[in-house]
């Protein structure tokens, strides 16, 4: 059960704590950075793939702990088992998500894969997963593919309770949803799920805007490739969860080798320091662009959650603000959306999101292309829809670029 009090960083190496619902930026700067003494100000990057073994008995004990998904007892043994930079980043994420532990991966998809493998019972008798659509196209494809031998039932946020069975091991949702930017009521989903753990992909929110554990989520994942890295130059994923889940998920990581590289961990840990100021600045520009787009005659509709329009947004609510990503649909349908993507000059037509520069993409044609037409229609992913991830550029210059692109015939 989540403790909504002070959560002190794991394993005593750092002293900064994050409090539930805290709006302090301090943990973003300091979490996971303790224990350096006078050796360094910035955590050194440890690229070692192996560690010398001075004491065989001690190393055997450490290996036994690591092999079963635990932490090292002294010796790190081997990079696939443990790395100090990865460990520091994980400690920071756990503190920021108000959960006891975190496990980092080479990508967001690697994190989701490990969770699904860990959730399935070893004998395969329990392998039912409820997916709340829409989800990121890659997650949807993974669940649909049959690769991981899980049985998936697709649900809406309102129908989760109807699909829970004795062999259900996990409920998977996103909030805000990729690509429609619709918010899912996490507390309501958790209530319906009952004792079944709920995994929330919080990539669009980051802990700055939403800490799903406060709403009852058992696990929170991020594609760190997005806002946490923030600069479009590092791929990574992370899951925050309790000790039992962390042990199971770390064991899968140790066995399958989907580790985050130490340099990537260093970059992601560094990215956390500026995350709150980036998110607030990008969110302010996104809110302004959403407002202007909603008044533009070439735009049929805009999807961007606001305090006025959603009871899930606002101080103390599920989400502190609408976020940095919005979706909008052109009245001219596919051709108009395609033109905007081709005509923007300052904005980059590209997938991904959360970078310091603004990106635009066409979900139906690219990120969510693999969904069948029925799933696209049900999820509201139409041919005229564009998804805009707003960066740190001057909002007037972004608007001028978008407006000119929308005018082009
Ligand atoms: C919401 C969401 N979850 C997961 C992923 C997968 O992350 P990665 O590309 O780091 O594997 C993405 C990628 O776009 C995403 O948008």
Describe the structure.
The chain is α/β, with parallel strands linked by helices and 409 residues long. It has 2 domains: 267 residues, 3-Layer(aba) Sandwich (Aspartate Aminotransferase, domain 2), CATH 3.40.640.10; 132 residues, Aspartate Aminotransferase, domain 1 (Alpha-Beta Complex). Helix content is 35%, strand content 15%. The strands form 3 sheets. Strands 3-9-8-7-6-4-5 form a 7-stranded mixed beta sheet, sandwiched between helices. Strands 10-11-14-13-12 form a 5-stranded mixed beta sheet. A two-stranded antiparallel sheet has the order 1-2. Helix 8 links the parallel strand 7 and strand 8. Helix 3 runs parallel beside helix 10 and helix 11 packs across helix 13. The chain is globular and about 75 Å long. The structure holds pyridoxal-5'-phosphate. The site of pyridoxal-5'-phosphate has 14 residues, from helix 4 and helix 5. The site of pyridoxal-5'-phosphate (PLP) has 14 residues, from helix 4 and helix 5. Keywords: Pyridoxal phosphate, Signal. InterPro entries: Cys/Met-Metab_PyrdxlP-dep_enz, PyrdxlP-dep_Trfase, PyrdxlP-dep_Trfase_major, PyrdxlP-dep_Trfase_small. Its cofactor is pyridoxal 5'-phosphate.
